[in-house]
Structures are given as structure tokens and as C-alpha cells.
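Input C-alpha cells:
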């Protein structure tokens, strides 16, 4: 019978919203043994995954001598005290949002199929509630987490943050051995005075790390030196490579991007693509033949009438496929605007060849080719763009040689940010390759200008890049770890944050996501670790039951704190305060008001 009910939709099983009665488990007062009296009865709506929506009618009992009141633990295990949605719904929404990266609309549809209905706003609310429950469970498990890491031989503290635009910095501390996020914080910037309390908090909770790994940020380095003065300190290879690449390439890359925007390259391409799309009829029999001809590179159609038009349309869309050249490393490893410009130049050159050798300027059908060629000639042959692209490519060639020497995030790599840097045991060979690269770089003509900063960075951080491996004593024996090569654990996480934001909001921008994300959001990364789940469950069979053990008032207090700390400045006000002449404007207004 139970299996039969489990397979029936709740709205079929209960045509009308059912009322379920809940009573305290106690029948007598534990303090005096007296029979309990009814104090009150009350109702509320509850929504769970198993039943859907129902009315919960609770009878609250009390000791006749005033020793205590007693409530239904069964109801408290289903849903928070003042909450409508059950713990199982909170967990379902949390996993859907943060582990499976579903958007609000998709979650609403999946829940509706199970007779659980909610608004998009409620999905977001429950997602934040899930984070807070998880954060409290994490904090309550700190001693067990510390014991777990001790059995692993200690922890290697990776430190990193991410921000975009005017968003706050979401800064994390992560154990490089277990790959668990230990703590996180939202800060305005990575300044020493802001980071020191955060580092001290991690040290107090989890003890001294056996090593630290971070980027070359001045604030991080200064704070680390004060809080962890005697701990082995390393610069992670991935961050070193990324930062040195930005220093070398960013100015030229930004200039190239601005020049492309000034010439309105993308809008013009999009406009041309939309025009051609209106002229193409995919239902025309010749369309498939022409597409097959383009795909095979051989003439497989007798119709030439639509061939130039379709060819130009295909080539424009090929230009817009420039992100496919990237390896998912991000800038400076991927240079997408350079790829975009080189693709545009390539099709412009190709169409020029076609016109010179195959087409007649008097044939009407050739007009799409001629119009495209002429319209984008200025951009493809722009002297400023060519100089910027050529200079960027020269520098990128040097940077790519460094990537190959370090054997990480290599140009021909296929792992993207999942690249673990290769074989840790080959560190001496990597150091030798790096020494050969430095020697080669010193011989270059531009070493005193273009590459002076790169040489300086190599010399400054060499010791932190190639220190001896650290022996780690675990319950399984002694192993050796190169902390610098476990390089991009947090980069992978931040990429996941951005992907979830893009799925949810339809934008690649991280700024909005970070502004409204709770500081403890990075803890969701730990949910992929079964050992972590076991630790925070603390004997409970699932997260639903574990969350039910957490004080509801504590959760509500943190929800209120998160809401009060949100960015509530109105957009119109934000726009005004960013203006440099705001004070002058207000002064002028007051002067005018006084004169009137």
C-alpha cells in the first residue's frame, strides 16, 4: 500500500488540502509527573515533498504547575517553527540551485510536477535559507572538521578572492589537501587590515596550517606575514602565471577591445547577419544543397543563385563563434577579442580572393559578397587595430613560452581550469625549464622595456615557486605535496559561481551575483565531498533531519542580518553618487533655492 501511495500525485491522493493533527510526544510532565493540559491549538500551512501542501493543526500542551510547555517534535522535524516549506523542500531547492545549477523557472516547474508550488521569489528565499542552514551546520562541525584534517596530516590553506566591477570581494580559505572550503567572507577589497581578522579566525578554528598558497596580492602577503609568520608560504603557479600574463598583455588587450568597440564592429556584424537571415529561406531545396557543398568543400548543387548570400551569412556566424577557440582558462590565457578580430580579417581576406578570382562585379547575385567586403574593409585594414593585434601577438608568444615552461594552463591544453598542472614529482624539471626560459628572455631585444617586469617577477618569487615538497604524515603514512601545483581549486569554484549566475540570470557578469550572494555561499562546494557530508550530518541520516536540529531563531537572526546587509541603494541614486560633480550640483541647487 505504501508503494502505491508513493507513486500517486498528492493532488490526486488529496483532492482537497488535508488537515493533519500533531501532538507532543509527552503525556506527562517530566519534572512533576502531572498529566498535561491543553494550552492552545493552532494551524498553519506546511508544504513538503512527500505530501505537498497541507494544514498542520498542532495541539500545544503544558504542565498544570507551570513547569514547561510541550510542542510536537514531529511537526518541528518537518518544517521550521514559523516556516511554510519543509526542510526537504529547502534541501531540494538548495541542491537544485547550487549543486545542479538550475534556474528558478526550472526549479519551479520540477517542484510543481510534485505538487509543490512556489513563486520565483520564494525559490530565491529558500536558496538563501539553505545557505544559512548549511553555514550553521558547518560552524557547529568545526571540531570534527579539524580532527578530520588532522588525520590527513594537517591542512594547506589556499587563499583567494574574486570580484567584478563594483561588486564586493568574495574571499575564501580552502584546504588544498581535502579541497574543502573552510571559511569565506565578503569584503570591499583585499587590504591587509581587512584580511587579518579573517586569517586569525581560520587559525583559531582549525589551528596552524602546514603551508599557505595564494597569489601575489600585496594585502594577502602582508596579512599572511603577520598572522602566519613561521608557516611555509608559497605562490601558486596558476595565479603567478595569470598575474604575470595580465601585467604583460592587459594594456594592449584593453586597447584592442576599445578600438573594436569604437568602430562598432559587433553591431555592424549583427546588423548584416540579421539582414541576410531575412533573405535566406531554409525551406528552399537549394539551401540544403548549398550547405552540404560548404560542409564538404565540393560543389554539390546546380544552383548558384543563393550561394554567395548563404556563404557570407555562414562566415559571419563563424566569426561569432570565436569563443570556441578558447580553452576555458580566461584572460590572459584566452584572448577572445584578438581571436574575434583575426577571424574577421580572415573572412575579409577570403572574400577578397573570391572576388578577384571567381566573381564578376556585374552579377546581381554577388552583391552580398561585395557589400560585406566593402562595409568591413575599414575595420579589417584599420592601421591601429593591426598594430595592436601584432604587438599583442608578439607578447602572447612570449607568455605562451612561459606557460609551456611551467607546464600548466598550456596553449594546447584540453582541461581548462580543471588542469592540475601535470606531474607533481617533476618539479625539478619544471624549475629547469623555467630557468632556461628566463635565460632566453634576458637575451631578447625588448628585455629592458617590455619584459623587464616579467624578469623582475620571476626573480622576486622564485623561492616561493620552487620550494621543496612538504612531507605530510597521515594515517596511511608519509606523502609529499607540492602546494604550488594544486593551483586552481578556488578558480574552479569561482567559475562555477559564474556559471550558476549565468544560468540563473542569463548573463555572464559576476558583479550582480556577488552583490547578492551570501558570504557563506562557497560552502556549497563542499557538498560534492561525501566525507564532508558525513561530518556535518553528525549522525543524522540526511540534511533535512540535520537542519531540523538547528535553532530556528538562530536561522532567522542570520536571515535578518543578511537582509539588512544587502545593497539597498536605489539605482537612480547609484548613478548620481558615481558622478564626480555631485557636490557641485547640489551646491548649485541650494544656491538657486535660496535666491528664489
Amino acid at each position: 500500500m505504501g508503494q502505491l501511495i508513493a507513486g500517486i500525485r498528492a493532488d490526486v491522493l488529496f483532492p482537497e488540502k488535508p488537515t493533519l493533527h500533531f501532538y507532543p510526544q509527552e503525556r506527562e510532565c517530566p519534572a512533576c509527573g502531572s498529566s498535561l493540559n491543553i494550552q492552545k491549538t493552532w494551524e498553519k500551512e506546511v508544504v513538503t515533498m512527500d505530501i505537498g501542501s497541507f494544514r498542520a493543526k498542532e495541539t500545544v500542551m503544558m504542565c498544570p504547575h507551570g513547569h514547561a510547555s510541550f510542542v510536537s517534535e514531529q511537526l518541528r522535524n518537518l518544517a521550521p517553527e514559523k516556516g511554510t516549506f519543509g526542510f526537504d523542500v529547502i534541501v531540494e531547492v538548495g541542491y537544485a540551485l547550487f549543486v545542479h545549477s538550475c534556474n528558478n523557472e526550472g526549479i519551479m516547474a520540477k517542484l510543481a510536477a510534485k505538487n509543490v508550488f512556489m513563486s520565483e521569489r520564494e525559490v530565491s528565499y529558500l536558496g538563501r535559507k539553505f545557505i544559512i542552514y548549511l553555514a550553521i551546520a558547518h560552524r557547529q562541525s568545526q571540531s570534527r572538521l579539524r580532527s578530520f584534517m588532522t588525520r590527513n596530516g594537517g591542512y594547506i590553506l589556499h587563499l583567494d578572492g574574486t570580484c567584478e566591477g563594483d561588486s564586493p570581494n568574495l574571499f575564501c580559505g580552502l584546504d588544498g589537501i581535502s579541497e574543502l572550503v573552510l571559511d569565506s567572507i565578503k569584503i570591499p577589497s583585499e587590504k591587509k587590515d581587512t584580511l587579518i581578522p579573517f586569517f586569525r579566525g581560520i587559525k583559531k578554528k582549525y589551528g596552524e596550517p602546514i603551508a599557505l598558497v595564494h597569489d601575489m596580492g600585496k594585502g594577502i602577503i602582508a596579512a599572511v606575514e603577520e598572522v602566519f609568520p613561521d608557516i611555509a608560504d608559497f605562490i601558486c603557479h596558476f595565479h603567478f602565471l595569470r598575474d604575470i600574463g595580465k601585467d604583460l598583455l592587459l594594456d594592449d588587450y584593453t586597447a584592442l577591445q576599445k578600438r573594436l568597440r569604437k568602430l562598432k564592429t559587433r553591431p555592424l556584424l549583427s546588423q548584416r547577419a540579421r539582414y541576410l537571415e531575412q533573405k535566406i529561406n531554409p525551406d528552399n531545396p537549394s539551401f540544403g544543397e548549398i550547405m552540404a557543398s560548404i560542409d564538404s568543400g565540393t560543389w554539390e548543387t546546380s544552383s548558384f543563385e543563393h550561394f554567395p548570400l548563404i556563404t557570407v551569412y555562414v562566415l559571419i556566424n563563424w566569426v561569432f563563434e570565436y569563443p570556441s577557440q578558447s580553452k576555458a582558462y580566461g584572460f590572459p590565457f584566452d584572448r577572445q577579442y584578438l581571436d574575434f578580430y583575426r577571424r574577421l580579417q580572415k573572412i575579409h581576406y577570403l572574400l577578397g580572393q573570391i572576388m578577384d578570382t571567381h566573381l564578376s562585379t556585374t552579377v546581381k547575385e554577388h552583391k552580398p559578397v561585395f557589400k560585406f567586403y566593402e562595409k568591413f574593409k575599414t575595420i579589417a585594414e584599420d592601421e591601429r587595430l593591426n598594430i595592436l593585434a601584432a604587438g599583442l601577438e608578439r607578447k602572447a608568444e612570449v607568455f605562451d613560452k612561459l606557460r609551456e615552461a611551467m607546464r600548466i594552463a598550456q596553449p594546447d591544453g584540453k582541461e581548462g581550469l580543471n588542469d592540475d598542472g601535470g606531474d607533481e614529482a617533476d618539479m625539478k624539471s619544471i624549475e629547469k625549464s623555467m630557468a632556461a626560459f628566463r635565460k632566453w628572455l634576458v637575451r631578447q631585444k625588448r628585455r629592458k622595456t617590455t619584459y623587464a617586469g616579467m624578469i623582475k617577477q620571476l626573480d622576486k618569487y622564485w623561492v616561493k615557486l620552487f620550494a621543496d615538497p612538504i612531507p605530510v604524515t597521515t594515517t596511511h603514512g608519509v606523502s609529499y605535496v607540492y602546494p604550488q601545483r594544486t593551483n586552481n581549486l578556488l578558480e574552479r569554484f569561482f567559475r562555477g559561481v559564474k556559471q550558476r549566475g549565468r544560468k540563473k540570470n542569463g548573463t555572464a557578469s559576476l558583479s550582480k551575483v556577488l552583490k547578492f550572494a551570501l558570504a557563506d555561499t562557497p560552502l556549497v562546494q563542499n557538498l560534492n565531498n561525501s566525507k564532508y557530508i558525513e561530518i556535518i550530518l553528525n549522525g543524522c541520516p540526511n540534511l533535512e533531519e540535520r537542519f531540523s536540529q538547528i535553532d530556528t531563531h538562530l536561522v532567522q537572526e542570520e536571515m535578518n542580518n543578511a537582509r539588512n546587509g544587502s545593497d539597498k541603494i536605489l539605482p537612480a541614486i547609484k548613478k548620481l553618487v558615481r558622478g564626480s560633480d555631485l557636490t557641485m550640483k547640489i551646491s548649485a541647487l541650494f544656491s538657486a533655492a535660496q535666491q528664489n
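The two ends are 83 Å apart (CA to CA). The chain is about 55% helix and 10% strand.
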